[in-house]
């Protein structure tokens, strides 16, 4: 299925355009739960208190941290369609906002396109007008700017907002406003607001699982590996790392994870980290990176090392960046776990419109993902994930 061209220009789209096919070749870049609260230390008894009867205290148990990867209500996008059936009739004139981390990064651009093109397609099918306004912060450090943008969308009366927080907490107040008002807010992809009612995105833990399974097979279940972590405050970074390390321990106990360190999503920092590791661990066999941009930095260090040592070191990233695809084709990066941001956007918009038009959706819906290597890199993403367009009765 051919990827649809962008059907509308500008941030605000009046969606009355004609239908276009919903496909895309796999490509993307990415990638956040609050730090666990410190445990309250037990009180120590003083000498005088020792002779007194103990005082009973009643304390509410701490609320469980929301983890979309492990939420028991979670279903994947195919199950959503099986359980909830065809699209409901759409109300005319709805306005949906999309709030991403930034719009300079390929991942977020692809997510934006998915939002817009799904909206065009479904509005045309339903014969209604739908407005989609996708905005981003100036950069992935602009937490206040992103909050201001979301508050503006709320104040303008948007019916729904698909939001991807820069951190797990920077949009908390805006989400509270939505939860107590008329705007439906859906957390998309990563940066998990703990007060969110709904989440749509890839299972970040599974990203790590897929990478671990592939590397373990390539290494015949023995050797040494290292992990380049993204931003330590990022939910996706922590989950991807945990999925990789825990799966490796389970399926390949003879593979040792010799190092885990953050490069803060930065390519140059990842390169320098890999250079250090290759000196410290000359028997290193593979590096798993929490995203493709860092993986490409690792590739620069590793391929120089290979010229001197003759030893191949596997490099696997996450996101499915077009640059990562090109690197795989050219014998650089070995694999990427593609989260298909275009399809994340498509599923999230479908989920939002189901919600806005009367269907009570589950709290969590997982979107498609797959490991891409030289073996399947030339396959269409729609074929790899088995994509079909949403349909009305």
Walkthrough of the structure:
The chain is of the alpha/beta class and 393 residues long. Helix content is 36%, strand content 17%. The protein has helices at 77-84, 106-126, 143-155, 172-179, 204-218, 235-251, 267-280, 292-309, 322-329, 341-356, 381-385, and strands at residues 12-15, 75-76, 94-100, 130-136, 160-163, 184-188, 199-201, 223-229, 255-262, 286-289, 314-318, 335-338, 364-366, 370-373. Strands 1-4-3-5-6-7-13-2 form an eight-stranded mixed sheet, with helices on both faces. A six-stranded mixed sheet has the order 9-8-10-11-12-14, sandwiched between helices. Helix 2 (106-126) crosses helix 10, helix 3 (143-155) runs parallel beside helix 4 (172-179) and helix 5 (204-218) runs parallel beside helix 6 (235-251). The two termini are 22 Å apart. Residues 1-62 have low confidence and may be disordered.
Beta-strand proportion: 15-25%
What profile does the largest beta sheet have?
Answer: 8 strands, mixed
What is the radius of gyration?
23 Å
Total of DSSP H or I helical runs spanning 4+ residues = 11
Q: What are the segments in which pLDDT stays under 50 over at least 5 consecutive residues?
A: 1-62
Topology:
Elements: E1 12-15, E2 75-76, H1 77-84, E3 94-100, H2 106-126, E4 130-136, H3 143-155, E5 160-163, H4 172-179, E6 184-188, E7 199-201, H5 204-218, E8 223-229, H6 235-251, E9 255-262, H7 267-280, E10 286-289, H8 292-309, E11 314-318, H9 322-329, E12 335-338, H10 341-356, E13 364-366, E14 370-373, H11 381-385
Parallel strand pairs: 2-13, 3-4, 3-5, 5-6, 6-7, 7-13, 8-9, 8-10, 10-11, 11-12
Antiparallel strand pairs: 1-4, 12-14
Helix pairs in contact: 2-10, 3-4, 5-6, 7-8
């Amino acid at each position: 299925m051919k990827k649809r061209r962008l059907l509308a220009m500008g941030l605000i789209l009046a969606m009355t355009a004609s239908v276009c096919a919903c496909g895309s070749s796999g490509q993307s870049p990415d990638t956040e739960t609050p730090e666990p609260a410190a445990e309250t230390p037990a009180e120590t008894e003083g000498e005088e208190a020792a002779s007194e009867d103990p005082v009973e205290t009643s304390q509410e148990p701490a609320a469980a941290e929301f983890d979309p990867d492990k939420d028991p209500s979670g279903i994947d996008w195919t199950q959503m369609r099986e359980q909830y059936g065809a699209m409901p009739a759409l109300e005319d004139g709805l306005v949906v906002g999309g709030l991403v981390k930034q719009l300079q990064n390929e991942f977020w651009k692809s997510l934006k396109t998915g939002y817009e093109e799904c909206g065009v397609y479904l509005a045309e099918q339903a014969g209604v007008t739908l407005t989609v306004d996708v905005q981003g912060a100036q950069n992935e450090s602009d937490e206040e700017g992103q909050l201001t943008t979301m508050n503006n969308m709320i104040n303008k009366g948007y019916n729904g907002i698909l939001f991807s927080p820069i951190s797990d907490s920077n949009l908390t107040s805006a989400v509270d406003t939505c939860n107590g008002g008329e705007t439906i807010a859906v957390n998309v992809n990563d940066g998990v607001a703990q007060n969110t009612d709904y989440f749509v995105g890839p299972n970040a833990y599974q990203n790590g699982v897929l990478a671990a399974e592939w590397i373990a097979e390539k290494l015949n279940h023995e050797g040494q590996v290292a992990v380049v972590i993204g931003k330590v405050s990022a939910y996706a970074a922590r989950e991807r790392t945990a999925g990789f390390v825990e799966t490796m321990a389970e399926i390949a106990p003879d593979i040792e994870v010799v190092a885990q360190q953050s490069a803060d999503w930065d390519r140059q920092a990842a390169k320098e980290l890999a250079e250090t590791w290759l000196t410290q661990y000359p028997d290193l066999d593979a590096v798993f990176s929490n995203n493709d941009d860092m993986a490409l930095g690792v590739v620069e260090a590793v391929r120089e090392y290979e010229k001197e040592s003759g030893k191949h070191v596997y490099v696997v990233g996450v996101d499915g960046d077009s640059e990562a695809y090109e690197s795989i084709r050219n014998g650089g990066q070995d694999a990427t776990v593609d989260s298909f941001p275009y399809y994340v956007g498509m599923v999230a918009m479908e989920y939002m419109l189901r919600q806005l038009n009367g269907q009570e959706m589950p709290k969590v819906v997982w979107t498609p993902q797959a490991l891409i290597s030289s073996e399947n890199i030339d396959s269409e993403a729609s074929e790899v994930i088995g994509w079909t367009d949403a349909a009305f009765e």
